Amino acid sequence: MFITHDFGVVAEIADSVVVMEKGHIVEQGSATQILNSPGHPYTRRLIAAVPRLTDKDRFPLEAASEASILKVEGLVKTYRSGSALLGTRRIVPAVNEVSFDLAPGRTLGVVGESGSGKSSLGRLLIKLLDGDGGRILFDGSDIAKLSEAEFRPLRPKIQMIFQDPFASLNPRSTIGQVLTVGPIAHGMPHAQAREAARTLLSHVGLDPGAFGRYPHEFSGGQRQRIGIARALMFKPKLLIADEAVSALDVSIQAQILKLLDQIQRETGVSMIFITHDLRVASQICDEIAVMHRGQIVERGPPSQIFLNPKSAYTRELVAAIPGERPGSPPQLAAANP
Prior knowledge:
The structure is a single chain. The protein has 12 helices and 12 strands. It is α/β, with parallel strands linked by helices. The chain folds into 2 domains: 1-53 and 324-337, no CATH class; 105-125 and 153-319, 3-Layer(aba) Sandwich (Rossmann fold), CATH 3.40.50. It has a 6-stranded mixed sheet with strand order 8-9-10-5-11-12, sandwiched between helices. The chain has a 4-stranded antiparallel sheet with strand order 4-3-6-7, covered by helices on one side. A two-stranded antiparallel sheet has the order 1-2. Helix 3 (41-49) packs across helix 9. The two termini are 27 Å apart.
């Protein structure tokens, strides 16, 4: 028995499928029947929400502004553990001479398997980790060398959306407090912060009553919307989304991806989108950087990465996408909700 929300995995391994909604089995049958001829409206909605690999570039890269909101040069981070004296010294180059740039209003996807260094890269960019070398030019200033005190005034301009929104929300604070405590600490008047929080809650699809409720009262998708609203409270220039939809089921995942796309188009915010799911990356990213053992082994628009990958590692990643292969018939029905 294999329990999953990923229909791509179902297409790869399942002989028969049981679909559950709100504690009830709403449909069951062979994998071929469920995936290609779903009968129940809920099953059709789930399959319609599955992210599919697309090779269509969102925008031509040459249309981007030459000015970069973020420019990374030779960034290095090495983890060290154990004792050299006892012979247990271990050195792991998590980020190894990584360089790239990001134009305003664009999204760079950072993809790779677990341990490739992509999450470490995200934490370096927001200075949750200190690097061992290289430069991070944000809006023209090298933030890599700044102390925490020096970086603090810039922190509101670079915000992160975390993978686990519940772990990043204080369970003892109301959502209103979660959203307003940071801006108030940075000098925003209380009344203005509360008004902005209520406006953003509405913008991300939550009702005004969410302001006075606690994190445990919300679903995973709703908590991720709260995490997005919290990041937007500062009107950042750069969002770093670290596996922001990987823990969500496909229908909620599709909603969050649509919301992020809408926010970017409305605000012009730039985004680093970190994910292990190439199907998701193809939906939202203008350009994709493939990381392997701490290095970027390939970078380009989705059409190049998915249809004409240059690196052997990229070819392996694309070949491993569950349930779908570029250039071959889809294994999942394009069901209408």
